[in-house]
């Protein structure tokens, strides 16, 4: 296979009911448009996730499958896939199928038309297909995060993202850091852009998060990210001729 210019990374835990269609949709959205690889990171699933990925791998040469020896969480799954990726740019999707792979060409077009200092194109779910309580919790959390971090991002929880691999690997890593990528990229001196994307109902299985669980973890992480931003120092560097 040629060296890919795009690596799509999908972290997944117990998503056997969603992954076969999701993999097929990614392939359909990108094959013939860009040289790419698709990396699915199985987070030590207890269902048939590995079996369905093995079957999908037989159909699609672009697919690579990595698996964790222990369950390690979504941020670790993303980091595993990104560290193993061969392309300079990463696209990410959640494993539950709610993100639409058909939006990936839109993000690539936004990148190609954008300035070089934009290193993250973040999906913005303008028509959320979630329960009322989940949408309310997300709106509340986004409001608090936006006021505290001032990241000018309406939706950091969307799994649909496109970003430069090298820029991501320079960011401070911690569990759940995937929810703060715009603020962390801006802290590193890069610009970020939000792009409206589609959002779909979950096709099978159940969410791995609860509103309370997200809130308890989110408060602690929000304080930590705010501290990182406050303690940051950026400066231009010149080398004498």
TrEMBL record:
Coiled coil: none annotated. One of its GO terms (biological process) is lipopolysaccharide biosynthetic process. Residues 7-168 form the Glycosyltransferase 2-like domain. Keywords: Cell membrane, Glycosyltransferase, Lipopolysaccharide biosynthesis, Membrane, Transferase, Transmembrane, Transmembrane helix. It comes from the Bacteria. It comes from Arenimonas metalli CF5-1. InterPro entries: Glyco_trans_2-like, Glycosyltransferase_2, Nucleotide-diphossugar_trans. GO terms for molecular function: undecaprenyl-phosphate 4-deoxy-4-formamido-L-arabinose transferase activity. The keyword Transcription does not apply. The keyword Transmembrane applies. PANTHER family: UNDECAPRENYL-PHOSPHATE 4-DEOXY-4-FORMAMIDO-L-ARABINOSE TRANSFERASE, UNDECAPRENYL-PHOSPHATE 4-DEOXY-4-FORMAMIDO-L-ARABINOSE TRANSFERASE-RELATED. It holds the Pfam family Glycos_transf_2. This is Dolichol-phosphate mannosyltransferase. GO terms for cellular component: plasma membrane.
């Amino acid at each position: 296979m040629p060296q890919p210019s795009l690596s799509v990374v999908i972290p997944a835990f117990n998503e056997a009911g969603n992954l076969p269609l999701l993999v097929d949709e990614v392939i359909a959205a990108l094959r013939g448009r860009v040289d790419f690889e698709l990396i699915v990171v199985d987070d030590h699933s207890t269902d048939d996730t590995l079996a369905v990925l093995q079957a999908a791998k037989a159909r699609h040469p672009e697919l690579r499958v990595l698996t964790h020896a222990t369950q390690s969480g979504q941020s670790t799954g993303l980091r595993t896939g990104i560290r193993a990726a061969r392309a300079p740019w990463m696209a990410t999707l959640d494993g539950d199928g709610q993100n639409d792979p058909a939006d990936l060409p839109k993000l690539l077009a936004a990148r190609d038309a954008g300035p070089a200092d934009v290193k993250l194109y973040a999906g913005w779910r303008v028509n959320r297909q979630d329960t009322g309580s989940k949408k309310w919790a997300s709106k509340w959390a986004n409001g608090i995060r936006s006021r505290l971090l001032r990241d000018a991002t309406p939706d950091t929880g969307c799994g649909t993202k496109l970003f430069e691999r090298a820029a991501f690997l320079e960011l401070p890593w911690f569990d759940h850091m995937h929810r703060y990528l715009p603020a962390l990229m801006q802290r590193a001196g890069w610009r970020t852009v939000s792009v409206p994307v589609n959002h779909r109902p979950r096709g099978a299985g159940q969410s791995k998060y609860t509103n309370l669980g997200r809130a308890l973890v989110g408060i602690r992480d929000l304080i930590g990210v705010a501290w990182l931003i406050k303690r940051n120092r950026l400066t231009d560097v010149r080398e004498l001729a």
